[in-house]
Amino acid sequence: MTAAHKIPQSVLVVIYTADLQVLLIERADRPSFWQSVTGSLDALDEPLQQTAVREVFEETGIAVGAGLSVPLQNLRDWQLSNVYEIYPVWRHRYAPGVTHNTEHVFGLLVPREIEITLAPREHIAYRWLDYRSAADQCFSPSNAEAILQLPGHAAF
After folding, report:
1. What are the DSSP calls for 25-57, one per residue?
2. What is the number of other CB atoms lying within 10 angstroms of the CB of residue 119?
3. What is the set of domains in the chain, with CATH numbers?
4. Which residue, of 1, 20, 104, 129, has the greatest Cβ tally within 10 A?
5. Burial class (CB in 10 A: 0-12, 13-18, 19+), 85
6. Nearest alpha-carbon partner for 87 in 146, 148, 27
7. What ranges make up the beta strands (E) of the chain?
8. Per-residue pLDDT of the chain (156 residues; tens, 9 = 90+)
């Protein structure tokens, strides 16, 4: 794989509030495709937690870490991984022959009033929904399943 190709290892970060409201963001390249924060590793040795922190900031403007908007301990690795077939429309981003991605699931507890600043090239809108409605809105089955597991993983 070259730097021009995405690494088929990614994170899925379910951003939620204490009352189980979930943040969904709408893809710019596929309007009406709603999802949680997702993103691939930048390097094979990039730690998954670092990928999650970076992607959350890039896609929502939420800064996670000591002295930032959200403390690092609010980001939890759910120890769940999903292997799924990459949608054909996005396979050109990966090396030839790569058809599957491994997605690692995290949850991030945030205050309800947190400011969201979308990356306009990636996302065009956001909404907060109760976790069941959020799962219903997701285009990705693995994202929907992760959201439905939120009550068992939520940190309060």
Report:
1. EEESSSTT-EE-EEEE-SSTT--HHHHHHHHHH
2. 15
3. 9-153 (3.90.79.10)
4. 104
5. exposed
6. 27
7. 9-16, 21-27, 34-35, 37-40, 75-85, 100-109, 123-130
8. 445 899 999 999 999 999 999 999 999 988 999 999 999 999 999 999 999 999 999 999 999 999 898 999 999 999 999 999 998 988 999 999 999 999 999 999 999 999 999 999 999 999 999 999 999 999 999 999 999 999 999 865
